[in-house]
Write a structure and sequence with these properties.
Blueprint lengths: L2 H15 L12 H14 L3 H8 L3 H18 L10 H11 L6 E12 L16 E9 L5 E9 L4 H6 L2 H7 L9 E2 L6 E2 L2 E3 L10 E2 L11 H26 L11 H19 L5 H4 L7 E2 L5 E3 L3 H4 L6 E3 L9 H21 L3
Parallel strand pairs: 1-6, 6-7
Antiparallel strand pairs: 1-2, 1-10, 2-3, 4-5, 8-9
Length: about 350
């Protein structure tokens, strides 16, 4: 983070986090409170390590961090804003159009693992035999989050997380103002605008996922899977940047689920804030951080986050579960499959 952006955040949160001096002791300055919190998020140091660095007791630090995270959530809440008009969705679609027309976001979910919460029973116990809450996020082509839903218990099935999310409710009630279906180039069949998911999600009218299994090289299904993978790699990079830059995710949390949800949302808001800042962007994600592809969409330089990812990270993938999709969802995927197969045939012509 640049000094300018730190000062901006300090000016915004100071009225909320500053404390008054008393006759017994001077209050910890707002600048130090913000620095302690950002250090905790960026390094993942425990409270005892922060105590030696800032000369503040671990007990006070345990109170400072949630207070400052809550203030940052209030100040930066506009950094994540799901589009509300057709024009805003079309702006997002423009970023995906070259790789996957009619795509308006890449969706993914992760388990945020934590130590067993007290008196929770099996409420947060997931299929990986760990305790977790679930983060469901939607990402645009600029590696920014445009939606995040945090806090579902780990025991809920991965498909159920999406079905219970605010995003799914808005899709079902047509509250997102997604543009009307349009034909793909060279076709006269209307297809809806879609989110790009992986095998953890069910195939629906508005969520496309790859065909399961291995397919013959050059086959229509394999070409479709490759096209979808190239387009949705943005969400993989976005989560990779989030986990490696905010080292608080390097190991399972030893906090209650409510605080883990608060910390996770704070990191997501800060991610968008730094990605949109002209002064912090080169520091937060310097060249080489994100995967680099050539003009043929072939990976030439893997992002540096791939080497920095911890094997015991607190952020883990959702389970891929085979599901039988509805016939209309299959027809939509087949229409995309035909488009990408025809496009590949044209590109291979002499």
């Amino acid at each position: 983070m640049s000094l300018e952006d730190f000062e901006y955040l300090l000016n915004k949160v100071s009225p909320v986090i500053m404390k008054r001096d008393t006759q017994l002791r001077e209050a910890i300055p707002a600048r130090v409170r913000l620095a302690v919190t950002l250090r905790f998020l960026a390094s993942g140091d425990n409270y005892e390590s922060l105590h030696f660095l800032f000369k503040i007791s671990p007990q006070i630090i345990s109170k400072i961090i949630p207070e400052v995270c809550l203030a940052l959530n209030q100040v930066l809440k506009e950094e994540i804003k799901i589009p509300s008009t057709a024009e805003e969705w079309l702006d997002i679609e423009n970023g995906f159009a070259r790789k996957y027309p009619r795509a308006i976001g890449s969706i993914d979910g992760k388990h945020i693992t934590l130590e067993c919460p007290s008196n929770s029973g099996s409420e947060y116990y997931n299929y990986k035999k760990t305790f977790s809450i679930v983060l469901l996020a939607l990402v645009d082509s600029s590696y920014n989050f445009i939606f995040a839903d945090i806090g579902s218990q780990g025991r809920i099935s991965d498909g159920g997380v999406f079905r219970n999310s605010l995003l799914w409710q808005k899709i079902c009630t047509n509250a997102l103002n997604i543009p009307e279906p349009n034909p793909l180039p060279g076709s006269n069949v209307d297809v809806p605008y879609v989110f790009l998911g992986d095998g953890a999600f069910a195939l629906t009218d508005h969520v496309m996922k790859p065909y399961p299994g291995n397919h013959e090289y050059g086959s229509p299904k394999r070409i479709f899977n490759q096209a979808l993978s190239r387009a949705r790699v943005v969400v993989e990079n976005t989560f990779g940047i989030l986990v490696t830059k905010f080292r608080v995710f390097k190991k399972p949390f030893q906090l209650c689920p409510e605080k883990v949800s608060l910390i996770t949302m704070t990191c997501i808001l800060l991610h968008n804030y730094l990605r949109k800042s002209n002064t912090s962007l080169p520091i937060y994600t310097p060249p080489g951080t994100i995967d680099i592809y050539d003009n043929n969409d072939i990976l030439t330089h893997p992002g540096t986050w791939r080497q920095e990812l911890e094997s015991n990270s607190a952020v883990r993938d959702l389970l891929h579960v085979p599901r039988r999709p509805a016939s209309n969802a299959r027809e939509i995927r087949e229409e995309f499959t035909n488009y990408f197969f025809a496009l590949s045939q044209q590109q291979n012509l002499p």
